[in-house]
Amino acid sequence: MNPVIISITQSNFEAIPEKCRSCLYWSFPEETEKLNSKISATNQKLIEKKKQSLLHTLQEFGNCAKILYYNDVPVGYAEYGPSHRFPQIKEYKSQPIGQIDEGVVFLSCLYIVDETLRRKGLGEKLLDNVIADLRGRGFTAIETYAREGSMNNPSGPIELYRKKGFYVKDDANPEFPIARLDL
Fold first, then answer.
1. Can you give the pLDDT of all 183 residues of the chain as single tens digits?
2. DSSP string covering 108-138, please?
3. What are phi and psi of 63, to 5 degrees?
4. Residue 119: phi, psi to the nearest 5?
């Protein structure tokens, strides 16, 4: 079956894969510790916080996330937007991430949740969909922190990005360089 990719809306937030729905790493780094220490009590509050953040980004920026369905099951997720919406960027050694007023969008997440479905082209299809969306909206570039030598990263491995034409913009942290695609 072919994958289906849809943009996030106010009405389909619950379809985001659970692991991604409660991930606050980029937008609310101070909350990540709470999630790790009090998973059950805090999880619903954090999910609601992420939902409100996504809805705010939707209003401010427009499309900012995609859900990838495979066999009618949500298995992939991508999130992107203006870099100021992701304060965790400041903690990375590789800098600077471009700004929205320069036409640069930050891709915080491109993730296939089911590990058995990785390396099957689903991440590429999801990335292609994000790129097409941003090109169609007139943005000039997309940047992300990809991981060198490992798939264990919310944005995915650098190899995926190189395959799609991204180049390393800054590698002050060689494990997590900034990958950039000029649109």
1. 689 999 988 888 888 887 777 777 666 666 655 555 555 556 777 788 888 889 999 999 999 999 999 999 999 999 999 999 988 888 888 889 989 889 999 999 999 988 888 888 999 999 999 999 999 999 999 999 998 876 666 778 899 999 999 999 998 888 889 999 999
2. EEEEES-GGGTTSSHHHHHHHHHHHHHHHTT
3. -45, 130
4. 65, 30
Question: What CATH number is attached to the domain comprising 130?
Answer: 3.40.630.30
Which structural domain, as residue segments, surrounds residue 47?
A: 4-182
Type of residue found at 38: K
Q: What's the CA gap between 17 and 103, in Å, rounded?
A: 29
10 Å Cβ neighbour count for 75? 20
CB neighbour burial string for 86-97, b if at least 16 within 10 angstroms, e if fewer: bebbeebebeeb
Tokens linked to 56: 């705010």
Alpha-carbon gap, residue 22 to 110, rounded angstroms:
15
Count of domains observed in the chain: 1
Of residues 131, 95, 140, the one with CA closest to residue 110: 131
Q: Tokens for 145, please give them.
A: 């922190």
- Tell me if 54 sits within 8 A of 64, measured CB to CB: yes
Which residue type, as a one-letter code, is found at position 166?
A: F
